Amino acid sequence: MKTIRFGWAVALFICWQPVALVHAAAQQTHSNKTTEAAASSAFQPLDRWKAAVVSGDRAALGAFYTTSPAAKAKIPQGETQDPAEEPAFWSSLRPAGLSRLDLKVLEVKNPQPDVKAFVLRYEVNLQTGAGEKSGVISGVQVWLQQNGTWRIVSTQRSDLLASVPRRLPEPAKPNIQLYSNPEEAPAKIAVALAAAAKDHKRVLLVFGGNWCYDCHVLDATFRSKQIAPLVNENYHVVHVNVGDFDKNLDLTKKYEIPLEKGVPSLAVLDPDGKLVVSQKKGEFESTTRIGPEDVIQFLKQWKPQSKGS
């Protein structure tokens, strides 16, 4: 997957907000089908923002964005400081036939005290004259707390793109801690190799990041009833965080992972650390192009030979 990540949005916040504003932040410690009752971000301002989108309340949406200075947005047409841009876009979904909005949080970070940055996936259903259509928007929101109130200071989003069906299981709620801090990867690999030496399994490295929805889908697949036994019997899995394609580059080089082909990307190691195989063509980069049979084939092909055919 090559998609929206934190790097741009956090840099946008740091660069576009006045120094005094950043310093101050550091010192401050409808009942219908559109409502996703079980879907909560665990961050109430974001949940309220979602409710305003669902209701199509442009005025309520406008109140979520800073105005002095105006919130910044990066949209497919370019960068803008128009305070009406984001409220206008999101409030337009309701009149367009919004019948479902499922907001999935892929990653959360706190780049500064009283600042929260979210990588988000918005799954949308629109009821139109031609029938129901489903789509997806990828985005980032950076929130700042001022005087006890959270507001959005910078955003990035894609266009509403048509949903592409997947044959792999998708997580109802992505694990935002699937990929731990990048610097933890070497130690985790060492632990996995030591365990593999004892139980004669292999180590499966999954390069990616929490921002990567395809990485979450692949993890859900590994945990599925059909595939989990194959994984657990033969592999110790380590998720290697590549950041914004700028972390653990020594490991991607060592294990021959071409990041330009996207993630998730897999490498299999023997217990002695020797590389058995690595994906070099972005084989699993898009989980819309593969199915359970592809994952099963890979896992069976590269499992320890002593485990049988």
Q: Give the amount of beta strand, in percent.
A: 25-35%
What kind of sheet is the major sheet?
7 strands, mixed
So what's the CATH class of the largest domain? Alpha Beta
Seen as an oligomer or otherwise, the chain set is single chain
Order of helix and strand elements from N to C terminus: HHHHEEHEEEEEHEHHEHEEH
Average residue pLDDT: 89
Rg, alpha carbons: 21 Å
Q: Detail the poorly predicted runs.
A: 12-39
Tell me the total number of β-strands: 11
Total domain count:
2
Label this structure with key terms:
alpha+beta, 309 residues, 4-stranded mixed β-sheet, Glutaredoxin, Nuclear Transport Factor 2, Chain: A, 10 helices, 2 domains, single chain, 7-stranded mixed β-sheet
Please describe what this structure looks like.
By secondary structure, the chain is an alpha+beta fold. It has 2 domains: 6-162, Nuclear Transport Factor 2, Chain: A, CATH 3.10.450; 182-307, Glutaredoxin (3-Layer(aba) Sandwich). 30% of the residues lie in helices and 27% in strands. It contains 10 helices and 11 strands. The chain has helices at 6-16, 19-27, 44-55, 58-62, 85-91, 185-199, 213-222, 228-234, 249-254, 292-301; strands at 72-75, 78-80, 98-109, 115-128, 131-146, 149-157, 161-162, 202-208, 235-241, 265-269, 275-278. Strands 1, 2, 3, 4, 5, 6 and 7 form a 7-stranded mixed beta sheet that branches. Strand 3 (98-109) and strand 4 (115-128) form a beta hairpin. The longest helix has 15 residues, at 185-199. Residues 12-39 have low confidence and may be disordered.
